[in-house]
Each structure stands twice: as C-alpha cells, then as structure tokens.
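Why this split exists: single-chain examples teach little about how molecules sit against one another. For that reason, every record in the complexes split bundles all components of an assembly together and asks for one structure covering all of them. Below is a record exactly as it appears in the raw files.
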Amino acid sequence: MSLSRPVTVWFGPEESSLFGALHMPAVPTRGAVVLCPPLGREYAYSHSTFVQLASQLTQLGFAALRFDYRSTGDSFDRTADRSEARGFADDVKHAVDFVRTTGVAQVAVVGMRLGANFASVQRDTDPVDAVVLWDPCPTGRSFLRGQRALALFAGVRVADEDAATLDLPGFKVSPEMAREISGLDLLAGEPGSVEAGTYSNKVLLLTRSERVADHKLVDRFDLPHVVRREVKGQPELLDVHDDWPTVPAEGIATVAGWLDEVMPRSGSEMAVPNRSEITVEIPSAEPSPSAAPGGGTMLIRERAVWLGPAGLFGIETEPVLGGFGPVCVFVSVANEHRIGPGRLWVQLSRRLAAEGFRCVRIDVSGFGDSPARDGRLDQPVHSISAIEDVLDTTRAVSPDDPGNVVLFGLCSSGYQILEAALSLSARGVCALNPSVKFPPPEMASGGPMDDRRRFCLPVIRPRSAPREPRAVIWLKRRFPTLATKLGRSEQMLVWRSRSVIGHYRNGPGRRLEDLAQAGTDVLLICGPAEMQLFSESGLGFVRRGYRKEHLQVEAIPTLDHGLFPARDREQVADLILDHVLGEFHRDAEPAGPAEREAAH
Amino acid sequence: MQITEEIRRVLREHARLVIDVDDLSDDDDLFRLGMTSHASVSVMLALEDAFGVEFPEQMLRRRTFESIGSIRQAISELLVTPSDG
C-alpha cells in the first residue's frame, strides 16, 4: 500500500499552534475525519496506525487530519501563563474547527484511547456527523496510574510522584494536564444514560474483549445510536514493551468501513488555507543582531520539508533572519517518528534555532511520514537504507557542503549518524546510547555484512538452518540428543567466527577515535551497557567527562537507554546545548570543507 | 482466606496466565507463568477496585505482584493501614 503525502498545516491559537497533517483524497471530498491520537508511549506506538488509517480514508474519498495536541508531538507548547482546564479537549475542538474552515460539509472524529475520551467530552459545540471511540480508557485516572505503574514495574527511574508534575515514560504531565485527564470518566452515570454520546448521533464504540473494564463500557454505552463492536489488535499495538508495535490492520479496516457506511457519499471541494509554515517568537539565551525587537527573544520559522530522492519527511526549524554555522540534523529513533525521545528533538530544534542554528528533524524511510524506499512498510530498523537516508538529508540541507552538519541520534539512529558522520567528515555528531551491537538485516540470510557498516558489532541470528546432510539426519534419528548437540556446536562455531571477524574489523570504540582524529567533533552520551561496548572495542578506559581533542564522552551510570525518565532527558539536553553552543555557536569560525578534508 | 480467594478471582480475570489459577501455590512466580507487565497493571487496578485500596508508589514494584503470597501481604498491609490519600 502506498501512503498519501499529506499537506502540513499549523492551526489553532496563534501563540501555541497545533501541528496537523492533512491527507487529501484525489476526488471531491465526502467529508473530513479528525484523528485524535492517544498520549504518552501510546501516542508513539500508534503513529504509524494513524498514518495508515488516514491513507485508507483518502481512498474512500475522505480528507483525514492527523494532529498533535499542544505540548505533544510537533505542536507548540501550551503557554505557561494561561490556565487550561480542558486543554486536550479544546485541541480536539480546534482541529474540528480547522477542518470546518475548509468548506467540507461533513465532519467525523476518530479517537483512540485518551483521544477517544477527549472526543467524547465535547460540549457546547456543534455536533459532528460521526464519532469513533476506539479502545477508550474507562477512566483517565486508571490510564495515569497504569502508565506510572508500567514504568515502575519495568524499572524505569521515573521521578517521584509530586504535586508539580507526573513523570510518565517519555511524557511529562503537568498538574493541569493531570487534572484534566483524571477528570475523564466514561463509566460515570447510569448505564444507557444519554450523556455519553451527545457529540454525535452516530457513534461506533470499539472495545477489547479481554479487558473486564470494557464490559462496563459496553453497558454504559447501551444507547440506540451507539454501535458496539469488539476490536482486535490493540494489545499487539499498545501493550508492548520489548516488542515492536504491530499496526492493527483489522481495526483500521473496521473504522474505515464503518465511516464509509454511515457518512454521506456526496462530495464537495475543499479549500485548504495556506498555513504550511509558522513563525513564532521564543526566548533566546542572548540578545543578538537577528533577535526580535526587545532582545532576548528570537523569531523562528517552522515548516515541513520533503528531502532527497526518497522524499524523506522532515520539519525544518530556523531563525527567520537566517541561520549560522552547521545545520543540525535530528534523526528519528528506531521505528518512531521524528520528535525524538519525549520530544527531545523538537525542544532542541527550537532551542538551537533560537540561538541561530538551522535545524531539521527527519523520519528515516519507511517510518513516520517518510515513504519506504522499496515500498515495504515493515522496514527493518537497522536497514542500511537508514544510513543512506542520513546522507541524503545532509546533501539536501547543505548541498554545497554536505559535511557542514551536526548529526543527532539515539539508539539505532545514534548508530546511523556515526556511520554517516564517518562517510561525510561531518562537522559534529551527538550520539546518545548508540546501538552498535545488533544483527544486520543483510546477514540474516547468510550474506556478508555490508561494507558501509564500520561501527557495527554484528550479532548473527540466521532465520533458517542450512539443509542438513544425510549423515546428520541418520544420526538425529539414531542418537537424537547427541546429534542435536553436535549440530548446534557446528552452527555456533560458524556464527561465532563470523561475529568475531566483525568485532575485529569494527571496533566501535576505535572507530570513534578515528572519527575524532579526522576532525569531526564527537559528543558521546552513554549509559553503562553502551559504554561497556565502546570501552571493550577500542575506546579504552573512559569515565564521566572524558575529553580529548574533538571527543567528549559522558558516561552516566544511571542513564536509561530510551531516555524515558524526564530528568534523563533534561540532563542530556543540558549536555547537548552546552556542547553545541560551545563548539559551533555562530561566533565560532566554521571550518570549511577543504580544512576538514586536509585533516583526514 | 477470603482475601486469597478474591486475589485468585482477580488473577483469573486479568492475569492471562498459562496455567489454571486454581493450580497456583502461594509462592508461584506469576511473571514466569505468563503474566506480562501490562497484565500486571490490569491486576493492580482490579485489586484496587476489589479491595477499595490504592497501592502507594513504594508498592508499585514487580515483586509486589509476583505471587499470590506477595499480593496478599501487600493487601493485608493496606487494609490494616489505610493510605493517607
């Protein structure tokens, strides 16, 4: 299935706009569907599902608006000076109001998990034509406690609960957000009472069969205008910890099919307002000649970009009056989209843009809003194409000198940027917990490791065992236990020898030293497990604050791999800002391509 | 005894174990018997509903929910000493 390329828009309050991606049909529009995402880790897990649902809806003649609530995703933050008791619910209203400005006659709303709860509490507003409540949370309080407990059960060092904020994995909840969420209760009131479904006279409630609390929801929504169905695939999408989320094809088909059934078929033209870029004023550390009048603030501009031959999706953030120094490129992490861990890439982009840097955060191919290079939607995270994506991005954002970039990545993208930096002779690289030990996809079928991998410590896991000789088959039948042991030993010998060769050739610690010696400014921030790999493979003994020319290593004993605790993200942000502003600030004389080439 | 029976009922409905809950001893490790982190959160929320208690932060650890015995101990403590909140 090919995915439709959306029109990106900013809408809602001027001072803190919401980001939206509007997928348009090729034919006159039957109506617009507003897609309300979940929050926290569930938001990250469900992003691809919403992209695929939006794409499927366009094929049925609908326009589909994906959007991020303020203070989430690519949207701007809520303003601190305004108390908002219904901030998330208001954002759903902003999204519905926006699609109504395009002239569509019919509007539907689809919300998943807390997104469904926010959609269900719309009051004092014009009803919409249809609503889908997809796996809603019975109560907001149970969601908050459940997310918090999940983090603690998994050993994530979230901050202690206090009155100021609630630290959920990858999502810091402010007191007013917590109050709003805690107040959501779909189980309140008598079963079958009409309060639950006043936003529309056509409601589809999708619940899980395996969750007992959902049985109460089904009773609660025993109303003539509510269609109730069980939906599969939600545990595989959302209840994942060590596994990747799986897009629920059946759930998407159920939602799209029901909307196709209940929404009128007559089409109308849409007029989408041109809001594809936004200019905002944000605080800057120092007044500068290009700062906004008044000093201490900077006007920055944000817009969507499609980069390189693969058409990679990115968001560019830059000072309105022009940027200085290298371009900062933030690369999406694993199978998630471009916002970085807990929105770290969004916050750093805006902060660095306020200091004069041009920044781009991208989705690697096959993830987020970037198309897959070969049409595959199940792209392996460690695919070699992700390294090509980083290189293509640098050529697109800095065509005269692709090396004039600072690359940022975490985990898989921490690895990808190291490989790209070595190829490019990049100005700088900030690698957070880079994942350097993994099974390269090209080796799974028995092939050699790609020559472009120089930081990788290969782990070999063949998908299928080789065809066994007749003698082994005879042995297995005659002496099953012994033959199995022998067979395993032989295979292990082959795999281990390949693995050892890979380790010898690819010591990532040694490669890191090479990178720094070649003139690339390297900041490596690691927890203990990642640090050990670098130490054992050539970097030697390192400790917190290890520095030599062009190389700064910050080994943090308590750092979480995915930066789920808010304090880890804050600590890392401080280190990055200090480093980048110190090394690459606009006042510094940038090295030209010839100088860096000479250093090599 | 009633506490244990109620815990078994909650486990039967929410824990998604690979064996019958009636066959569990007090010390069997529920996580080893197939209870995932997400299922343990469902168990936690259901126990709070069933007993009218709220597990404080310091009890939100895997070991609190790793066996019928550890759950019973936690519930007993909470029933004797109601939380401030």
